[in-house]
Each structure stands twice: as structure tokens, then as C-alpha cells.
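Quick question, first post here. What does this chain look like in 3D?
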Amino acid sequence: MININLSKLEKQNVYSPNDDSYLFQEVLIEEANQHQQLSSIVEVGCGTGILIGSLIHELNKQNKSPLISLAIDINYDACIVSQKTFDNNQIKCEIINTNGLQGLNKKFKFDVAIFNPPYVPTEPDELQNHLNYFKEKQQLFKKLIDEKVDGEQFIEQIQKVNLIDVSYSGGKDGMYMTWNIIDQLIAVMSNQGIMYLFHINKDIYLLFKIILSRILLNI
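> Answer (accepted):
Ran it through. C-alpha cells below.
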């Protein structure tokens, strides 16, 4: 198991590992035994880095380190915490602060995708407000860089815009963001790619059916 150490402030700004995280983590560690050499792994919504970090860590132990690993989160603070997790556990993984797969070259394909979706039902206006925080933080980044602000002052200013609500906001029925990211991931999966998705759904067969239909639309 990898070590995750969060400060009090980090717990306020980043989704902390919970029961769903630990269950997902156990599955990924077990699945590492089934994989041969992987070319590429991606996680959307990496949070603290516990999921993709655990999979890479287990693959490393088995001398099956992936060639390319990519952790993505819309929350800049989560990206910082993930980097700390990777550094503390000697894990090699690139991190990108973006919304979904925005800005990535869709021609690049991944062997494994990991996604633990936001699940709280959120009104469209509320969800949009949360997504607008991302744009606000990007604008703040640009402003601080243009003004050559750095060090503790930079960190203090950046933390004024908190994006932790985006970690929970699932949109209509708690599923809007799930389908949005699944569609993006399907488009960048290799032919033999595997997507690991954590979801609590009473009608799991209906969920599989819908995902399969979306995959077929992308073939």
C-alpha cells in the first residue's frame, strides 16, 4: 500500500480517500496481477493520487512499470497533493490540471483508464458554477504569473479559489459528469483497453448496457 499524508488544509481543499477509494484501491492492486506490460495508464479525477498511484506501485513491484502514466484533475490543489503522493512513494506519473481530457491529443490511446466519478446530484446551475471556479482559478494563475508573484504569496492567493465541490458535483441524477467523462475516455482507449469505473448503481446491468452502446457508437 502507498502512503497518503494530508495536512489539515489539504483535507479542506482535496477529496480525501474514503471507503469507495479503499475498495477501488484493493481491486486495482489485485488487477495488477492480471496485466502484462502496459504501455499507458490514465486517471481522470486523481484526487490524492491513491488509485493510479497504487496501481503503478504494484506494477513496479512486479517489474511491469507502465511506459506512460497520466493523472488528471480539474482541482489544482489535488494535482499538488498527487505530486506529493507520487514523490513520497517513488512513483513516476505525469500530472495535468485540466477539465476532463480537455487539451489532450485524442490520437493518443491508453491501455488502462481509471475513473471514480463525482456522484452527488447537482442542479445544472450549481454544476456550472462549480465548473466556472476552474476558469476563475486559471485566470488567477495567469494574473499571478504575469505579476511575477511566487513563493508563499502565490500559494496563499491560489488557495482562495477552492475547487473541492467539483469533486462531488455529478450533475443531473448524479450521472451527467459520469457519462461526460466516460464518453471522453472511450474515445482515447486502445482496442484492448480496460476502463476501471467505480459506481454504485442498483441496476448495474442497465449501466453496462448503456456503456456498451456508447462504445459501439465510437467503433
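The chain has a mean pLDDT of 86.
The beta strands are 40-44, 68-73, 94-97, 110-115, 120-121, 169-171, 189-197.
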